[in-house]
Amino acid sequence: MLSLSQTRQFLRELKLQPKKSLGQNFLVDQNIVQKSLAMAELISSDTVVEIGPGLGTLTQGILERGADLYAVECDGRLCAHLRKSLGKAYRERFHLLQGDAMAFPVAEKPEEKDYKVVANLPYAISTPWMDALLGQAVLPSRLVVLLQREAVERFLAPAGTKVMGPIALFLQSAYDKVEAHPVSSHCFFPAPAVDSVLLSLSLKAEPFRFSHGTRRLLRQLFTQRRKQLGHLMAEHLPPILANAWSELLRRNAYSATVRPEEIPMKMWQQLELGRPSSC
After folding, report:
1. 129 and 11: one domain?
2. Statement: residue 112 has pLDDT above 90
3. What are the pLDDT digits (tens) for 152-189?
4. How many helices (H) and strands (E) does the chain have?
5. Residue 279 located in a structural domain
6. d(Cα 268, Cα 173) in Å, to the nearest integer?
7. CA separation for the pair 14, 76 (Å, rounded)
8. Do 196 and 228 belong together in one domain?
9. What residues make up the domain containing 264?
10. Residue 278 belongs to some domain of the structure
11. Residue 85 DSSP symbol
12. By CB neighbour count within 10 A (0-12 exposed, 13-18 middle, 19+ buried), where does 80 fall?
């Protein structure tokens, strides 16, 4: 696992200047690496997906636990470094893809395999990548991701808050929060100008999943969050379903003037089921 001095040295050798646009803040604190691995409860039979392995600090820890690792990294120089530093030693278990994590959100992991995600997630893609992950046919049993604090607040936002949005609905319908551990900016090089959180989530025994069509509809509704929900439903839903939703709001003591972020998750799930009933 790489220290700060080793990280600086490798970056000089690779002639790589960390890019803020790519979220290249390299983890250099071994305690956070160990905390990530412990949160993931890794065993040797696990399959793991890592997004943006960078220089391989977390990658090496995952491989040392005996897991089968699928990783996606967009930077060609970092990919070459990883293949040289870890590829030979872990040839049978380290599957590295050079590409965009948004195009390959689970790094070309075989579809049938159960898996966990363990990653120091590039902050610039945290929300769209999470959205893409939640649309996968198979969801990871455990998510351990190092994120910007503001992203964690969006992911775990309760109804009635201004940051409540579709990603919170999709994520909280499928996952339970296990642990959230604050991480100092000094644990990275270069140090980001924002606070970070190491977040652990566990797949629910019976995860609720929104269909592609409902996910698209919810995104549309929340992009117009200043509008009243009654007007939004009339605009975006067939009359029969819009009327059923108006009745659902009334039975749950909500006015048609309510905003989307004020509606609790279980009521949104009724929209997916297509048969609104009192929650």
Report:
1. yes
2. no
3. 999 999 999 999 999 999 999 999 999 999 999 999 98
4. 11, 9
5. no
6. 10
7. 11
8. no
9. 212-273
10. no
11. I
12. middle
Task: Tell whether 127 is covered by a domain.
Answer: yes
pLDDT tens column, 153-163? 999 999 999 99
Is residue 216 located within the same domain as residue 185? no
DSSP code per residue over 112-137:
T---EEEEE--GGGHHHHHHHHHTSS
Total of domains in the chain: 2
Q: From 134, 198, 203, 141, select the one nearest 175 (Cα to Cα).
A: 203
Which residues, in sequence order, are CB contacts of 75 under 8 Å at separation 6+?
16, 22, 24
Per-residue model confidence (pLDDT) at position 100: 96
H runs (alpha helix) in the chain: 4-13, 30-40, 57-64, 76-82, 126-134, 149-155, 166-174, 212-222, 229-236, 239-251, 265-273
Give the tokens for residue 279.
């929650």
What's 216's domain CATH number?
1.10.8.100
| 234 falls within a domain | yes
Q: Would strands 47-51 and 94-98 be described as parallel, antiparallel, or unpaired? A: unpaired
Mean pLDDT of all residues belonging to the chain: 91
Task: Please give the single-letter amino acid code of residue 176.
Answer: D
Task: Give yes or no for residue 229 having a pLDDT over 80.
Answer: yes
CA Rg, the chain, in Å? Answer: 21
Boundary-marking domain end, from 153, 178, 203: 203
Pick from 203, 227, 255: which residue ends a domain? 203
The CATH number given to whatever domain includes residue 190 is 3.40.50.150
For the cut 60, the answer to whether the pLDDT of residue 81 exceeds it is: yes
Written as one letter, the residue type at 73 is: E
Return the pLDDT at 39.
97
CB neighbours of residue 140 within 10 Å: 24
pLDDT at 278 over 70: no
